[in-house]
Amino acid sequence: MSDFPYADRFPVNRALPDHGRPREEILAELRTMATEEDAFWETGRCSGTMYCGDHDHYRFLTEAFGLFAHVNVLQRDMCPSATKMEGEIIAMALDLMHAEAVQDATPAGMVTSGGTGSILHAVLAYREHAAQRRGIDRPNFVKPETGHPAFDKACHLLGVELRSVAVDPHTTLVDPAEVAARVDANTVAILGSACNYGYGTIDPIAELGQVALEHGTGLHVDGCLGGFILPFGEQLGYDVPPFDFRVPGVTSISADTHKYGYAFKGTSTLVFRDKAYRNAQYFHLAGWSGGKYMSPGIDGSRSGGLLAATWASMVHHGRDGYLHHAREIFATADRMKAAVRSHPELRIMGQPTFCFSFTSDEFDIYHVNDFLRERGWRLNGQQYPNAIHMAVTRPQTQPGVAEAWETDLADAVEHAHRQHAAGAEAFSSALYGGVAGGLTTEVEEFIVAVMTDMLDAQQSVPPA
Ligand SMILES: *Cc1c(COP(=O)(O)O)cnc(C)c1O
Fold it and tell me: Looking at residue 44, what is its pLDDT?
């Protein structure tokens, strides 16, 4: 299965070329690959990932990025602009998350390298804060099972025990009482998602806030996906319960600028109710021979370009810009969900908004996925139960895409009935679906092979 992409069309570099190539030739090669690959999602048939999709906006961000791409924001004496841009990104994120509702502490935030970066820093902040203030040296973190794997990764990296709580299979939501039952004196924080990635559903944040307050622990709200769109859905009158600092007990929120903030990949915001959490995770080494060292987060050198592009995206959109896109995305999602509901053999998981997942109790939903793939759709596969998910983004709001969804989905349902009657096994089920009896060694070996092939491409082409 290993394959070196483009080996038949462009030079393969197995070592630094002896002689450098002209810039124009390199750019032509890159342009060819980028243009062909963009064509894949420009159809609007790809779930999530391309949140913006507007090439004019990308050109604008690229120009903003280019002005500061070469700047290292670790050296603030050389780039006061970074302090302005980062501070304003944090302030705008705090404003969006209703920091004005906080009376008992000073809210604060930071800009990180992405959703995983925000989650890593949140878990680190809770671990350190609890160690310093509560003397906890065997920390644990309680997550609804639907919480993003970045929490498992953060706990793994930071030596925090992760306690996973099963969700109700019908609503896809966690029962706050079950979360409370897993909390003990060593719990540094619990999690609620607004919304989770898999089902697009919003955990009962107000009740989780009560659990956090009763037990004297933190509550992180993962708004990586929803943070920059749900507030506008609320404004539009959709059923979005508050999940931000208006809710007592919420102590931190992650919201990705590189998703519905329509910035470039590589930034996210993390905001805290109380500055003390953020400050607890600072790192400094005052006695180093190379000089006094400090970094406000896990990263060392960072590019000023990412701050500039993120800042530019936020101030370009403003509240009315984000509201405009949210209106179109929510309306498109409503139409796409209505198409799913029009087929009684399909079932939407829980009560999602702009991002939804569906399954079938009559046939393997991966038959539907197989068919949709042939029509150029790229949906994400889920398991336990098998389901497929669609995060509606701006590319789906283009004219004709929702109509194509209605037609293609109807044809896919017919296909699934035929396949089911014939006793056929769904193709993508084997790749993405759940394995009966849980994780097998073969699945783990397969996953390791996929990652290894991705990194070892230079070994996969026979030498010429
Ligand atoms: C995307 C996402 C993350 C992780 O973000 P990355 O930017 O991929 O690191 C975390 N939580 C949710 C709900 C997400 O959708």
Answer: 97
Looking at 216-265, list the stretches that DSSP marks H as alpha helix, in order from N- to C-terminal side: 230-235
C-beta separation of 359 from 199 below 8 A: no
Task: Give me the residues paired with residue 72 across strands.
Answer: 303
| Interatomic CA distance for residues 317 and 311, integer angstroms | 10
Question: Contact, 40 vs 46, CB < 8 A?
Answer: yes
Q: Which of 151, 205, 224, 229 has the most ligand 1 atoms within 8 A of CB, as the residue to mutate?
A: 224
Q: Check pocket membership of 193 for ligand 1, CB cut-off 6 A.
A: yes
**10-residue averages of pLDDT along the chain (464 residues):** 80 93 98 97 96 98 98 95 98 98 97 98 98 97 98 98 97 98 98 98 98 98 98 98 98 98 98 98 96 94 97 98 98 98 98 98 97 96 94 98 98 98 89 70 88 83 64
Q: What six digits make up the tokens of 147?
A: 């919480």
CATH fit for domain 318-432, picks 3.40.50.1000, 3.90.1150.10, 3.10.50.30, 1.10.3720.10: 3.90.1150.10
Domain boundaries, the chain: 80-313, 318-432
- What is the DSSP pairing of strand 387-391 with strand 187-193? unpaired
Strand order across the beta sheet in which 108-112 lies: 108-112, 268-272, 252-255, 218-223, 187-193, 140-144, 161-165
423 within 8 A of 361, measured Cβ to Cβ: no
Q: Which of 220, 212, 216, 207 is nearest to 175 (CA)?
A: 207
Nearest Cα neighbor of 51 from 304, 338, 355, 340 is 355
Please give the distance, rounded to the nearest whole angstrom, from the Cα atom of residue 407 to the centre of ligand 1. Answer: 31
Counting every residue written for the chain, the total comes to: 464
Structural tokens at position 373 = 């793939």
330 Cα: distance to centroid of ligand 1 (angstroms): 20
Alpha carbon distance 449, 171 (integer Å): 35
Q: How many CA atoms lie within 13 A of 181 on its CB side?
A: 9
Q: Is the CB of 429 under 6 A from ligand 1?
A: no
CB atoms within 10 A of CB 302: 21
Give me the architecture of the 80-313 domain, per CATH. Answer: 3-Layer(aba) Sandwich (3.40)
pTM as predicted: 0.96
Ligand 1 center–CA 439 separation, angstroms: 23
**Residue 148: CB within 6 Å of ligand 1?**
yes
